[in-house]
Amino acid sequence: MAIIKNNNSVSHSKDGNTTGKVITCKAAVAWGPAQPLVVEEILVDPPQKMEVRIKILFTSICQTDLGVWLGKNEAQNVYPRIFGHEASGIVESVGEGVEDMKAGDHVVPIFNGECGDCVFCKSKTSNLCKKFRVDPLKNVMVNDGKTRFWTKQGEPIYHFLNTSTFSEYTVVDSANVVKIDPNAPLKTMTLLSCGVSTGLGAAWNTANVQEGSTVAVFGLGAVGLAVVEGARSRGASRIVGIDINSDKLSRGISMGVTDIINPLELHKPVHEEISEILEGGVDFSFECAGNLNVLREAFLSTHEGWGLTVLLGIHSAPKTLPIHPMELFCGRRIIGSVFGDFKGKTQLPQFAKQCMHGAVKLDEFITHELPFSEINQAFQLLIDGKSLRCILHL
């Protein structure tokens, strides 16, 4: 990768107007896999054509940030880099051509964008986008193939998941920014950038859980519990929560799980236990652990004839599905879900309004709050399995 120096001069107007100028701000920079993030001053360029510069007010950490930071996939080891993809904030300025947002708008960035013009965006059966879909290998802006972040010495700092929210200011393609109701509480709206939308959307949109349905959720982290919330709000009759962490099982019960299973306490496969207690299996299972063995158990836990397994966990290892093709002839199906099958810019504003009116219990997902300067502590809470979402205040 060629190293490009930034020769732009840093300028600020005396009246505090930063539009069109380079901003100096603090960001948590990752300098290498598993190295503590360094909160330091960086330079942030103005937004270019069809880009938005956002003042981040709240951000949080999810397992995807953690997995890439740990270096689980060498192809993603590009440094220095600014991670983060769950956040909320206010538009500072917009680039040429941006018409659906302006300075002062309340927004959430989304890793899975929507340009609105490509064949994918125009499809009613997909929420992907040809240019702005989620891409963990992408580390520069679409417009010119360059970064908008620089060290104070003029060296490039690379982007992450179309968003890079571990910074007081970030630049995002407008296709990856969603304008929301200014009355919506930005702290909880942060959760719509990834975890809650992914899990709840998988229950509502991908599986279309109906009243009376039976559900099994494998892995009760934030995404798994968002699935639970989605199934509960749809009137599922039984929700089985599976996890090896007893604290997560207890939290699951408080959020709507009706039956709990700790695989470490069983003397038989989980799918056999589920088949016994639910007379042949569940209607829907959701794999939220990113483990191939768990995926197989989730698949086999569904009922023959109509069972559907939704894959949500991130699988970084280069291994294939642990399913024999002939097993699909039993009527069970399996499908992956990206961002809960929400079309971000089209559907997320309405989802935000539903959350404002109590359709989803967002507050229960926030287990910790810390100042941005303590971001490494927030990472440790996630590693230790103690937090669902730790909100960082910038």
UniProtKB/TrEMBL annotation:
**GO MF:** S-(hydroxymethyl)glutathione dehydrogenase [NAD(P)+] activity; zinc ion binding
Alcohol dehydrogenase-like N-terminal domain: from which residue to which, for each copy? 49-181
Pfam hit, one: ADH_N
What cofactors are annotated for this protein?
Answer: Zn(2+)
**Where does the record place the Alcohol dehydrogenase-like C-terminal domain?**
222-345
> Can you quote a single GO CC term?
cytosol
Asked whether the keyword Zinc is assigned, the reply is yes
Biological process, per Gene Ontology:
formaldehyde catabolic process
Name the keywords, alphabetized.
Metal-binding, NAD, Oxidoreductase, Zinc
The answer, when asked if Manganese is one of the entry's keywords, is no
* InterPro entries the UniProt entry points to: ADH-like_C, ADH-like_N, ADH_Zn_CS, GroES-like_sf, NAD(P)-bd_dom_sf
What is the similarity comment for this entry? Belongs to the zinc-containing alcohol dehydrogenase family. Class-III subfamily.
Please describe the quaternary structure of this protein: Homodimer.
Name of this chain's protein: Alcohol dehydrogenase-like 4
